[in-house]
Request: fold
Amino acid sequence: MEQSWNAELYDKKHGFVSNYGNEVLEWLDPNKEEQILDLGCGTGDIVKELHDAGVKKIKGIDASENMIMQAREKYPDLSFDVKDATMMTFEEEFDAVFSNAVLHWVKEPDKALDSIYRSLKSGGRFVAEFGGKGNVQTIVEEIKKEFVKNSIPYDQAQFPWFFPSIGEYTTLMEKAGFRVIAALHFDRPTKLEGESGLQNWLDMFGQFMFQNLDDDTITRIMNNVEQNLKSDLWIQGEWVADYKRIRVKGLKE
Ligand code: BEZ
Reply:
């Protein structure tokens, strides 16, 4: 996945990823004295937002070197590291770990939850929001239809994301040791900016389903998907993707 992240495109065209982080920050309810970890910080905007709000001991990590390079360039005084959620080695360092729009990329959620749990101090909290069950299903189903039409084999194991239900994810949280104190699964229709909004989205994220296909096939699939989804997702002059989120809060007691 690493080589595919384009941090500039992410900042320019997908600012909504961090713009939508504000409600999860309300659940986090940060305190200025706390040591906080932003897991999957992207190019660092939420770290900066919290720092400016007075949270001085905040650190951002991301598995993508490109993202961290861009975060360091944008905010050279803030603390960022390249680290994978499943391989963190922090031991009881943080009062809170939060994560926005990232954990659907982590296909070994049990490992991530174990390392999040270990990284928290006793009494610490974990707050996260990411794609929940049924997320972007309309788009995914349309891509799969194109695979069938083009006789391209599709193996569910190549599905790039983990979109759990509340039951599935909170069970994993409990197994890791958390007391789950809140969980939500909700629709969050998401505008994709401009007339090429869906094409941009497919360019950035669809590619994870298009691995090993040649460029002409990808272009044909993307064009067909766009055309076929117009009746469902082009709403009053805008592309609106069928995002569904899961938001959770757990305590280490
Ligand atoms: C999401 O934020 O839900 C998401 C983004 C890209 C691909 C899949 C899901």
Summary: Residues 101, 104, 131, 135-136, 161, 205, 243 surround benzoic acid (CB under 6 Å). The domain at 7-252 is CATH 3.40.50.150 (Rossmann fold). The first strand starts at residue 35 and ends at 39. Strands lie at 35-39, 57-62, 79-82, 94-100, 120-131, 179-187, 190-192, 234-235, 238-241, 244-251.
